[in-house]
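Hey, resending since the last one bounced:
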Amino acid sequence: MERPSAWKKYTSEQSEELEALSGRYRSFISENKTERECVAAGVALAEAAGYVSLDAAITAGKPLKAGDKVYVNTRGKALTLFNIGTAPLAAGLNILGAHVDSPRLDVKQNPAYEKADLAFLDTHYYGGLKSSLWVATPLAIHGVVAKKDGSVVPVVVGEDPADPVFCISDILIHLAGEQMKKTHAEAVDPESLDVIVGGKPVVITGDENAKDADAPKEPVKQMLLGLLAERYGIEEEDLLSAELEIVPAGPARDMGLDRSMVLGYGQDDRVCAYTSLEAMLEVTDVERTSVCLLVDKEEIGSVGATGMQAHYFENALAEVMELAGEGGDLALRRALANSRMLSSDVSAGFDPAYAGQFEEKNSAYLGHGLCFNKYTGARGKSGSNDADAEYMAYVRNVMDEASVSFQTCELGRVNAGGGGTIAYIMARYGMDVIDSGVAVLSMHSLWEVTSKADIYEAYRGYKAFIERP
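The structure tokens again:
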């Protein structure tokens, strides 16, 4: 059963909408490379669209009614949007859920050191990645440093064309004989992914008689710490309470002579997060209350206070229902169980260069529209949600009525590997959930590839879903 390319159906007006959306998306992922940055940008967009803080509504004791729009910012790393509908909340919600964290290198708590007259920052990788891809490529530093006085210092270095960039060294091919004999997984030790951040020592000037003993023991590291103190007011001990992320430097770009694709970092899963957010903000009046969840920690199991396994969404919904006059545990449980959700996460795009890892008739193809994964997981669907047939039929109907191009797919051949999403976590409430997203080439690499047609169809599909009574 073949699904046609979505590119064949567009009118000139739709082509213009597609390009405009792709441009906004490209800017979003270029400017927001951490979960904190994505949430801050999401809050700004939501407030511009008329959303107000749920905390402010609670403090004011303001009742919520149909047409009201509120958001919850959870620790600066997760964002929940509610658009209150005309139907009772206990009748269920239409939920879009994506994640805004991506594989990266996190700077360790005690990171700075000097060796061979170079200054380094020690890192620990986050999420599933290939270590060998992170060497000898331009890198940027994004994040925050929290100080003991309660202030939080934002740090972004490596994105402005005038900024310096950073890198992790690789062994030259002339001396790589041993490395070349290793498996891909062993070629670069993850513990060696230390970022070179300096190479100039502090020099004592003005005193020709100064002795070597008076010089810092680690002059290059001292130069680094001096620059941090000068530019950010940061001391070395402040790095103990820092969250600094090493990410690829540079913006997302159009890809292909026909400009049909986007090449950029973090498209897993910001391509679904952004299109979900745009769809949510575009829709004004709804019958069933709509929700957009942008969550953290999916790449490491949805753990922690900002991962989907935490209860912040459930708690926020309880607050919303209380302000809407539908408070109570039973009503909350009914609302969750009666809800429908698209777990908005990417799928593996069929790559002819690695065709042996896919089963072609059940693969996602770039440019063929929004993907639906009935199940993910590995080794016999382990860890998967596995949506039921009735819900699959429901979402097919929603997409067909809205003329959204879509395709069904699996995450590669049986036992070739596998992966998971937040779908199984939300399904614990008894709601209908299915994975739905955009096909990606080179997933979890530094630069991932998506089709603009799929980005557009995801936005259209998500919009149709939350508009559904």
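The mean pLDDT is 94.

Sorry for the duplicate.
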